[in-house]
Design brief:
The protein has six helices and 14 strands. The protein is an alpha+beta fold and about 260 residues long. Helix 1 crosses helix 4. The longest helix is centred in the middle third of the chain and has 14 residues.
Length: about 260
């Protein structure tokens, strides 16, 4: 399946912004299951790419001229193909630049569980398997209602758990938290989901869980495996490590952001 993406982010400022540096994870990963046919990342500043410790393409954009607007845009096409075997997106090997799987056992501020969450994992998971992990995802999706606006990018797994509501980022953090609490490596995945009706769902987050020597991709929000409609941009220990856009600026005053996303196949 070929997935086409056109993703634009516009920023406007009520005062001149004098400097900005942005960390961008907006280029698809080079790995089994997806092949970049064409991809272009452009923006209001100078952009340079490098591979990070997780094997992601990390782009750094620097804006040095005073401005009251900034734009970041990606356009491209990626061929996504589901792997065969135990699961639709099991990676049976580690990528060339990836750290050991044990790196994804470490809890972070965003993924640390409370006792109730750990008990929930033990009650629903049992022996790790494709079936039990999907059952756990369904249980989390039932426990955390998909509700935009009740959490934010700094919300932790425990925040979403206590609210009983959140979005895909929160579903991913809760799944990661409970898996790691049972000594199962799990990592955060950011990317795009093709075919969704709402633009807010086109940019998406899900989870890779390590079982039987491979990564099984699980979308908790949709309680299913991630297949060829899921285009992967970056992986990390949590949202902070894989956020599509993070940055700092000097000046600018109040910021207004507008996003336009089109993902189709």
């Amino acid at each position: 399946m070929r997935v086409k993406v056109d993703h634009q982010t516009f920023y406007e400022y009520d005062e001149p912004m004098h400097y900005a540096i942005e960390r961008l994870y907006l280029t698809p990963r080079d790995e089994p299951g997806q092949r970049v046919i064409s991809w272009e990342l452009t923006g209001s500043g100078d952009i340079r790419d490098q591979l990070d410790a997780f094997g992601n393409v990390m782009s750094t954009m620097v804006v040095t001229r005073p401005t009251q607007s900034m734009v970041i845009r990606v356009r491209g096409e990626v061929e996504c193909t589901p792997d065969t075997g135990m699961g639709a997106w099991v990676r049976s090997h580690l990528g060339r630049y990836e750290p050991p799987v044990e790196a994804f056992l470490r809890q972070t501020t965003l993924t640390t569980p409370n006792k109730d969450m750990s008990d929930f994992a033990r009650a629903h998971l049992g022996l790790p398997s494709r079936e039990s992990l999907l059952a756990l995802a369904r249980a989390i999706e039932g426990r955390i209602a998909y509700t935009p606006g009740v959490t934010h990018v700094g919300s932790s797994a425990m925040d979403a758990w206590s609210r009983g509501a959140g979005v895909c980022q929160d579903h991913a953090h809760v799944m990661i938290a409970v898996c790691r609490s049972q000594n199962i490596p799990a990592r955060y995945v950011s990317g795009y989901l093709s075919g969704e009706a709402r633009a807010s769902e086109a940019t998406h987050a899900w989870v890779d869980v390590w079982i039987d020597g491979g990564w099984l991709a699980v979308d908790v929000t949709h309680a299913c495996e991630a297949t060829d409609r899921w285009l992967r941009l970056a992986v990390g220990v949590d949202y902070d490590a894989a956020a599509p856009v993070r940055g700092v600026r000097r000046g600018g005053g109040q910021e207004t952001m507008r996003v336009a996303v089109s993902v189709s196949h």
